[in-house]
TrEMBL record:
Keywords, sorted A to Z: ATP-binding, Cell inner membrane, Cell membrane, Membrane, Nucleotide-binding, Transmembrane, Transmembrane helix, Transport
Domain ABC transmembrane type-1: 36-322
Residue span(s) of domain ABC transporter: 356-591
Localization in the cell: Cell inner membrane
Membrane topology, record value: Multi-pass membrane protein
Family: Belongs to the ABC transporter superfamily. Siderophore-Fe(3+) uptake transporter (SIUT) (TC 3.A.1.21) family.
CDD domains in UniProt: ABC_6TM_exporter_like
Source organism (scientific name): Streptomyces olivochromogenes
Domain of life: Bacteria
Protein name: Multidrug ABC transporter ATP-binding protein
Any single Gene Ontology cellular-component annotation: plasma membrane
């Protein structure tokens, strides 16, 4: 059973919230031991905090009126110790909960990055780089406060509210009823506010992703070059200004959503002590049960203590609703189907000889598009060379990408040493197949670091040997910092030919038995091409080589040349055989010869 080739679409948000909450709770499961400690600290802190008003009641009703200085000292000491213990417990629970929250965020970032590393090349061809970066940086970063503090805040405030209400009932149940009359209304208001902010948060994160994509594309070296040379700097600035302005509106809406309603809750809660005093006074005035000064002060103290965790609890609920939008975007990436997977029992080749076969190969991007390749049957013996030519869009690069499984065939199969590449483990493919493409990618690091990306354990002598084989050692040695020279963003401190030779040196260091050259010299001038071609010839020696050729002068010595047109192999043979047929290949050679003087 081969991996499903269907494209991914985001799951609908409606009806997903209970499942989403379960997934969020599952993230904390590995840290349940530490969270249990936090729970104990929270419970102990809440009990100590609730005890303080009872100490205050005894102080006002007993110790001071009766002049019991010893008891007064003990009660005062108890209140001081309560504050000290609460402070210590608060620091400990903050340390543990923050550590757990940061580990959860680390797990999320790693999971998303690992998932994206396993996606096929097709995913990245249809997804903006800035969008991917925004999911990892902005979305996960936006959840930081929620993940690091919400769980603790929820448990702490809930415990405090329950303990405080119990203590209030113990002091006077009638005043407790008066205090809690409006609580259900407050809960309803906070849920409404949370839903509003969740919707706005979804729009805000999409806008942040769009802005991040614009920054990534327009402020890269290539983007700056294009903008400057096209005279589009001002228009790009205005486009960014418009996107940033939209983000400002969404940020304001997010912060102001339900702000008045939440302020009303705060005003009402702050006014409750006045209501309590009024209710106690009216009850006494009309012959109701009297309440001692100590009880009244202790109750108001508890009621004020109830105010902070209740408002915090309602705010936490709003924050959770908002964060659900961020979690949804992260879970969308974690739920991306991986269409290129390693089989359950992969085949491992200790030594790759290099025979490649394309057996009735078909490839299409999805069920809705037509075939990019169709009916391809080609055999390349170990150590042999195959060149693939044809007009733009004929499927040449796609054919080469099927060998290292950057794409998977949708029909037929591709084999390496007689084994379907889909049955091989990824280590065998990575170790056995090297790719040098026209789009050379270098990291913003030193020359040595870029070369060692192929083999981290390579010695300096091995780096230099690979660079010599790639005809680039002398240039590197002439630089002030030699192999420690930083190549710059995407290698822009080096010319096109130098970057290509660095890529070839990197592949030589990897030493793969199978080599794929995807138009590796098409963007170079003739003089540079010759230098790079010498490096390629050194690299190709005694390897199975598949060359995607733009300039036909570079592939005349290939053992076999295949001409693709509209995804089909229309001609094949050696250079001389194809010239004698005077078919499409011969026409391409004549056209190439006519263009050669202009290069």
């Amino acid at each position: 059973m081969r991996p499903d080739q269907s494209t991914w679409t985001p799951s609908p948000a409606e009806g997903e919230q209970p499942r989403q909450v379960r997934r969020i709770l599952k993230l904390f499961r590995p840290y349940r031991g530490r969270l249990a400690i936090v729970g104990l600290l929270v419970g102990a802190s809440s009990l100590v905090t609730v005890a303080t008003p009872f100490l205050l009641k005894e102080t006002l009703d007993v110790a001071i009126p009766q002049g019991r200085t010893g008891l007064l000292s003990l009660l005062a000491l108890g209140m001081i110790l309560s504050a000290v213990v609460t402070g210590i417990f608060g620091v400990l629970q903050t340390l543990i909960s923050t550590t757990v929250g940061q580990r959860v965020m680390h797990d999320l970032r790693t999971a998303v990055y690992g998932r994206l590393q396993r996606m096929s090349l097709a995913f990245f061809t249809r997804t903006r780089t800035g969008e991917v970066q925004s999911r990892i940086a902005n979305d996960i970063g936006g959840m930081q406060a929620t993940v690091t503090s919400t769980a603790t805040s929820l448990v702490s405030n809930l415990t405090s509210v329950v303990a405080t209400i119990v203590a209030m009932v113990a002091l006077d149940w009638r005043l407790t009823v008066v205090s809690l009359l409006l609580l259900p209304v407050f809960v309803w208001i906070s849920r409404r506010v949370g839903n509003e902010r969740k919707k706005i948060a979804t729009q805000r994160q999409k806008q942040m992703a769009a802005m991040a994509a614009t920054v990534t594309e327009s402020l890269s070296v290539s983007g700056i070059l294009l903008g400057r040379t096209m005279g589009r700097g001002d228009s790009l600035t205005k486009a960014f200004e418009a996107e940033s302005d939209s983000l400002v509106d969404l940020e304001v809406k997010s912060n102001m959503a339900g702000r008045w309603r939440m302020s009303v809750i705060g005003i009402v809660m702050a006014a409750m002590p006045a209501v309590i005093y009024w209710a106690a006074g009216m009850a006494l005035q009309f012959g109701g049960p009297s309440v001692s000064i100590g009880t009244l002060v202790a109750f108001v103290s508890l009621q004020q203590g109830l105010f902070r965790p209740t408002v915090s609890l309602l705010s936490t609920g709003v924050q959770i609703q908002t964060s659900l939008a961020l979690f949804q975007r992260i879970f969308e990436y974690l739920d991306l189907p991986i269409d290129i997977t390693e089989p359950e029992r992969p085949v491992h080749l200790d030594q790759v000889k290099g025979e490649i076969r394309f057996e009735d190969v078909e490839f299409r991007y999805d069920d809705k598009s037509g075939p990019i390749l169709e009916g391809i049957d080609i055999t390349v013996p170990a150590g042999g060379s195959l060149a693939v030519v044809g007009p733009t869009g004929s499927g040449k690069s796609t054919l080469s990408y099927l060998v290292p499984r950057l794409y998977d065939v949708t029909g037929g199969r591709v084999t390496l040493d007689g084994v379907d590449v889909r049955d091989l483990d990824f280590d065998t493919l990575a170790r056995g197949i090297g790719v040098v493409s026209q789009e050379t990618y270098l990291f913003h690091a030193s020359v040595a670091d870029n070369l060692r990306f192929a083999r981290p354990d390579a010695t300096d002598e091995e780096l230099q040997a690979a660079a010599r084989a790639a005809q680039i050692h002398d240039h590197i040695a002439s630089l002030p910092d030699g192999y420690d020279t930083v190549v710059g963003e995407r290698g822009h401190r080096f010319s096109g030919g130098e970057k290509q030779r660095l890529a070839i040196a990197r592949t030589i260091l990897r030493d793969p038995p199978v080599l794929i050259l995807d138009e590796a010299t098409s963007a170079l001038d003739t003089r540079t091409e010759y230098a790079v071609q010498e490096a390629i010839d050194a690299l190709s020696a005694n390897r199975t080589t598949l060359t995607i050729a733009h300039r036909l002068s570079t592939i005349r010595g290939a053992d076999q040349i295949v001409v693709l047109d509209s995804g089909r192999a229309v001609e094949r043979g050696t250079h001389e055989e194809l010239l004698e047929r005077e078919g499409r290949y011969a026409a391409l050679v004549h056209r190439d010869a006519e263009l050669e003087p202009t290069r």
